[in-house]
Specification:
Layout (H helix, E strand, L loop, with lengths): L1 H24 L21 E5 L3 H13 L3 E6 L5 H7 L6 E5 L2 H4 L1 H11 L4 E6 L6 H7 L4 E4 L4 H11 L3 H10 L17 H8 L9 H9 L3 H11 L13 H8 L1 H17 L5 H21 L15 H7 L2 H9 L1 H13 L4 H9 L3 H12 L6 H5 L13 H16 L6 H13 L6 H4 L2 H7 L11
Parallel strand pairs: 1-2, 1-3, 3-4, 4-5
Length: 462
């Protein structure tokens, strides 16, 4: 017994000596970093509940939480009755991490129910991809964060730090990310042109009588757009050289729908006019205009009567689908110019290159821009659905399919390389609509030579 006590005392002495040595080795000004899972106010772990159908994903998510010292209080294999199950827990959780696909894709709906019962709970949605309409549902149900699979520990930790308000860790991450990513909070988004939203909301079909006068009132305060409309109405394209002198007469001549489209072109031109060089001109200025014109002209040969409602939105969709690319280029001009160059000559598409360089894509940035601009909800999918896969062709909307096809045709006209995936999607869309293979030839070199006479091309910054 005495030997045991002597041995125990010796061990304690060694431990104390070892701890003293550690404390002397740590600089006095070295700040101890508290793990994300620990409440810095009372030093107790935050409690987490995980709802995930896939066992392997659940294991990884649990491991990530535990690594950051969270207390995983419960794991649900199914999403059934989650609000009741949380209510029955003796100690309520701080965080619910739930998969989008639980209970047949009811993840976001369950979050909405949980938020009503527990307004202060933090919610993290895990999803395979940004599916159609998911972005708007996330906003509507006040989801705190979204994590896209495959889950990477570094990115998962960034989300946790954001959700838990750990600005100290977010500041460190901004420094670490400087070379391989971007801080979305520091991203500069250009303001939406004042006239743009008013014109988007202007319905030409409901304003047939007196519509020209109403549209004139909206546009007239913007002298630059008014001058462009008058100039284009006097172009050889409309055969009225220098006979139109008023905005009212110009709108009457070229029509309200064309005037609306012209406003979209002018808005895009003003946003991107500072981007100079052949790559920016081709990808961010010429391609959107060409895609818009091609998409509009595609509606008839595809032979779908249900396309008629698209005639008011298809041009707008194609003008602003690439707004995320434009904003990235405005913020990181040199880097983005290299990405566009690599996309022409390399084996990776633009989105892959963006992900490698910035740890985000122009789709995510475009979504952020549309939210910042408060664009109508039905236009959000224009951004989120632009890079859909073959497997999603039947799920996305006609406007997404036609726009994707128009962009593929336009890229080839501009001699931009299509990836193998883009070619496969192009063929699959044609097959989906039962369109003849000759449609590719119809929108080929001859079409491009002819369409360049369109006055909208004169609006590209020189």
């Amino acid at each position: 017994m005495i030997k045991y006590l002597i041995f125990l005392c010796a061990c304690v002495s060694l431990v104390i000596s070892f701890m003293d040595r550690i404390s002397t080795d740590i600089p006095n000004n070295k700040k101890v970093i508290v793990p994300i899972g620990i409440n810095v106010a009372d030093h107790t772990p935050y409690r987490v509940v995980i709802a995930e159908d896939e066992p392997l994903s659940r294991v990884f998510i649990k491991r990530y939480f535990q690594y950051e010292h969270f207390n995983v209080a419960a794991e649900f294999e199914r999403g059934n009755n989650i609000p009741k199950r949380l209510q029955d827990m003796p100690t309520k959780p701080h965080i619910l991490c739930i998969d989008y696909s639980v209970s047949g894709g009811r993840g976001i709906e369950i979050i909405g129910l949980v938020k009503k019962a527990f307004p202060d709970i933090k919610t993290i949605l895990v999803a395979d991809e940004a599916e159609r309409d998911m972005v708007m549902k996330v906003i509507d149900k006040r989801v705190d964060a979204v994590v896209i699979k495959p889950i990477v520990k570094k990115k998962f930790n960034d989300v946790l730090a954001q959700v838990m308000g750990r600005k100290d860790l977010l500041a460190q991450n901004a420094v670490v990310y400087k070379s391989g990513g971007i801080n979305l909070k520091e991203l500069k988004i250009p303001p939406m042109p004042t006239v743009l939203m008013k014109v988007i909301k202007f319905d030409t079909d409901q304003n047939v009588s007196g519509g020209s006068a109403e549209l004139e009132k909206i546009i007239a305060p913007d002298k630059s757009i008014s001058a462009d409309i008058i100039r284009i109405s006097n172009s050889a394209f409309y055969g009225r050289s220098k006979k139109i002198s008023s905005l009212k007469d110009a709108i009457t001549l070229i029509g309200m729908k064309t005037v609306k489209n012209l406003v979209f072109v002018q808005a895009q031109k003003n946003i991107s006019k500072s981007l100079r060089g052949p790559y920016f001109r081709k990808h961010l200025q010429e391609l959107p205009i060409l895609s818009s014109l091609v998409a509009f002209d595609l509606l008839n040969p595809l032979g779908q009567e249900k396309f008629n409602p698209l005639k008011d939105t298809i041009f707008l969709a194609n003008m602003f689908r690439r707004i995320g690319m434009t904003v990235l280029a405005l913020n990181f001009t040199d880097k983005y110019q290299k990405i566009l160059k690599l996309s022409e000559y390399g084996t990776k598409d633009t989105y892959q290159l963006e992900k490698e360089q910035f740890n985000t894509t122009s789709i995510e940035i475009g979504t952020k821009v549309f939210l910042f601009w408060k664009m109508p909800q039905d236009l959000m999918a224009i951004i989120t659905n632009q890079n859909f896969s073959i497997q999603q062709i039947e799920k996305v909307r006609d406007i997404d399919r036609v726009s994707r096809l128009a962009e593929a045709f336009s890229k080839k006209m501009l001699q931009l390389r299509l990836t193998e995936k883009e070619v496969e999607v192009e063929d699959a869309i044609l097959k989906f609509y039962g369109a003849p293979e000759e449609l590719k030839e119809l929108f080929g070199e001859d079409f491009y030579e002819m369409i360049q006479d369109h006055p909208f091309f004169d609006m590209i910054p020189k």
